[in-house]
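To: structure desk
From: M.T.
Subject: fold request, one chain
Message: Could you run this one when you get a chance? Sequence is below, nothing fancy, just the single chain.
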Amino acid sequence: MKKSRILLLFSLILLCYHTESAAQRSNIKDYVRIEITPDHDDWTYRTNEQASFTIRVIRGNVALKNIPLTYEIGPEKMPPVQTGKSRMEKGFLTVKAGTMKTPGFTTCLCRTEVDGIVYSNYVNIGFSPDKLEPTTTLPKDFTEFWERAKAETALIPIAPLITLLPEQCTPETNVYHVRLQHYKKGTYLYGILCIPKKSGKYPAVLRVPGAGVKKQPAEMALAEKGMITFAIGIHGIPQTLPDDLYPNLSKGVLDNYAFYHLDDKDCYYYRRVYTGCVRALDFLCSLPEYDGENLGVIGGSQGGALAIVTAGLDTRVKALVAFYPALCDLTGYLHGRAGGWPAMFAPQNQNLNNKPEKVATSRYYDVVNFARFIKAPGYYSWGYNDPTCPPTSTYSAYNVITAPKQLFIAHDTGHWRTKEQDIITNNWFCKQLIK
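Reply: Done. Structure tokens follow.
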């Protein structure tokens, strides 16, 4: 018995050590960093207003002197229009960044080498970003196209298959794996459903996924606040398969899925994805525990795009949260400025995709054109330094929204978000849906 206790104690100590080590590793940062500070606290300027950056190279919280630095300044995602070098004799460098005559974002990219190691960093600043207008246009038959697509989906029986997942249930929440039929008979959408155990009527939330092929976890944070939640995948793959299957599919048959059938608006990959989100709402609205009124959608990146698309397609949505939405103003690159993920018309992809039929298809799936039809209040959030979903593209969608909207800019974030963004948006979301 004594030996067993000793082994148990040793195991607990080892577990704590590994947990702490993992947490420490996740917080590791470069010892040397390049600090780029705009001369406006909000990183935002008016068009034709002059901007400047102060640059320091920091090691151990001390600015280094007499080290090489190179910098490039130019429109976001475009070739630089200004370059320079410095030896940083004073430990800092002030660079005049010029201005922009039209709304958009300017990037300052810096590089240095310290002790044989190369470091880099960049900062984006905005020029009248609230005035950015999209480059994409609305097809004349846009509404007709999507009403027909929704009607075709509505003819397919949902035929839900709901399976309890006892190992994921909590004392307050039941968790289920769900299969829904949509698009055509024998084609399925899968997700993880959470329903409060306590009898009653509850608001419902659709959690839409970011890009890639991943197993979707249960949306427990909102479920624990007293909501029905449904976290879906978009690729027609069950969410209970072995973990290693998903990355294998991501690198195999589903690699670059966002480009599939881009030359045909009726067959493009996201057609079934967008109508699948509506089908997920159909399912949530059919649940006896749903309160019949308060329905929301939330997601980030590709999920941010799908949140906007879903709200634009379906007026049953009463509130949405979208973080750094993808698929915004896709044709931006064809007009000399940044476009949204998946950058299908970026220079490296233009040989493949800059074709009239593909450009035409993109307009039916561009988030900008769904944002025009949103009626529900929304909370939106991103950073200025996002390399995946550039703020030039996300502002292009946000600015066309006429429904009540709020925007939380976490300026120095990239394609990720802070806990403050989650706390603030979740609190707002709950106030909108929990009456």
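Reply (cont.): The longest helix spans residues 2-26. Let me know if you need anything else for the meeting.
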